[in-house]
Design a protein that fits this description.
Layout lengths: L5 E2 L6 E2 L9 H7 L8 H14 L4 H6 L1 H7 L5 H4 L4 H8 L8 H21 L2 H5 L19 H12 L7 H10 L11 H12 L9
Helix pairs in contact: 2-7, 2-10, 9-10
Length: about 210
Amino acid sequence: MTAPPQTDATDELPRCRWCNGAPEFPAYHDAEWGFPVADDRRLFEKVCLEAFQSGLSWRTILSKREHFRRAFLGFDFDRVAAFGPADVERLLQDEGIVRHRGKIEAVIRNAAGAQALVKEFGSLGAYFWRFEPDPATLAAPQTASTHAASVAMAKDLKKRGWVFVGPTTAYAFIQAMGLVNDHELGCHARAKVAAARKTFKPPMARPA
């Protein structure tokens, strides 16, 4: 049985248990996590930040998010794709972000991959929402770290040259960007996300 969600002492609203992990989490949880997203920059930002989180905590990444946005030009992948070796070296000196050469280079490489996806599908949203899982196949909220959809997404992205996006990273992206409603049963945000998903129209790929 899934344990009941935890409550924030300041407002007594029931929330997912992970919200107790840091004071920054409730606001992110209430306003962003799990709500469906179609905006290409936000999708690219999230897949990049999930890659940076690999081996680290989400609190570390969330606390540095504004620095990441500044460093990667608002995650405008058209501009990031033009970064070169000098930009990599500059970013390795930026104390505001995670200074990991492989992950920095991955953002640049994946930015070029994002351009290719937009050219093929019309938008990143149209590509990523192809991997929306069938709700009937989902485990109980927050009891799984991967899903067949995240495995398929990671495999397809790897085939297209993307890096640092494995099945677990892909599933965290799916959860956060609202391709599933993985808020715990009883969490006050679960109904809000369900309502948002009900009116959300996933982006469609351009006709072939």
